[in-house]
């Protein structure tokens, strides 16, 4: 008996030692990665580096494989830069009209689509910090819509959420002053229950904010030459080349098997061998993208949702969830005339980059400093707000509740900085990534599960991935009063009620 007890004790101690060692090793790996390899966001969740997070967690939201069956490449379509109706030294006036139309994406029948001032997507609105902006918005659709300015710090009465529907043939004016720094933002509809369908049909456009800093920075800024908008979306085309949203709508996020960039299938750009700048916008209803270059070389992320990062961050992979943006710079100085390079999403080709002229044998380095954002990552104050995202499909909820236009969920004071602790209650192994989006502000990420966020998430954000089982702390300060929305940016989750309202007083 005594011998048996000793053996049992020995085996038990051995087991304990193994478990403790493995735990320490895993934690060491995780910490080490965060300290030394901040740029590799995706690696944290790959099975081989972090088995705790489960198999293929980063891809868990993607349900349809990308086929991209186009035989030919097409020159990348560029959204027009919208001409102002009128411009003074202090004010600018634009008109935006939603309309239906038909669009040629591929051979065969035209596709019935929606667009702003055109048949698919919209023009680029260029505005400046300090400028007074006046937008005339007109709805020529046969259904209600709204004009939401994703990422703009504006009063809630012009924010264009579900409170501000515009009837068919209706018009509204939007007046605001640009109170924020240079950034690539976007606009899209946000009518109650119809956002997924209207965005899928084509309603989305970009807003470029410029300021003295962006004027002064030596970055590529020649539109369509070395500075490109990249609105990436996925769509299904039926046998008649139609989108048919109602038939393919998925309550956990509608995805397609064909990638579109600015409405172009299999796009290419022709560039010189210089630095090029891609303004990436995940304009998809639900798909996550993991961008990389076909040669697996580094690129530099220079901006996040709400403006420039403090410095260019070297990356080899970049994940964007729906609603998220990032500006990247690719140094092509080592390439020769005739070379090509692909921007990839995993194994799918997103954009072909063809070098057609050699001008820059030495390369022009990016500016070392881009911005001056300071964040107190050590702020461990008790959170002012705690919030949970839960459920899937029609059961999605925030704090256990679904959206009710008549319920104010939260309150905040203008000009007071708050810490929000947001938890995705979905199971680590089987749950979904919920992209959290907050209207009316740009916020900072303090930590993800207690770890300082990767460098490319240390800038201004309005949309962030909440990974299954994860808790994210953010620092929020509203500068405008009114009622603002917060929600999941999987558009079908939003339409299903994964949305709440905060009143700022
Ligand atoms: Cu969601």
TrEMBL record:
Plastocyanin-like domain boundaries: 99-213, 253-333, 392-505
The keyword Oxidoreductase is assigned to this record: yes
GO biological process: cell division
Record-linked Pfam families: Cu-oxidase (PF00394), Cu-oxidase_2 (PF07731), Cu-oxidase_3 (PF07732)
A molecular function GO annotation: oxidoreductase activity
Domain of life assignment: Bacteria
UniProt keywords, alphabetically: Capsid protein, Cell cycle, Cell division, Metal-binding, Oxidoreductase, Virion
Family: Belongs to the multicopper oxidase family.
Protein name per UniProt: Multicopper oxidase with three cupredoxin domains (Includes cell division protein FtsP and spore coat protein CotA)
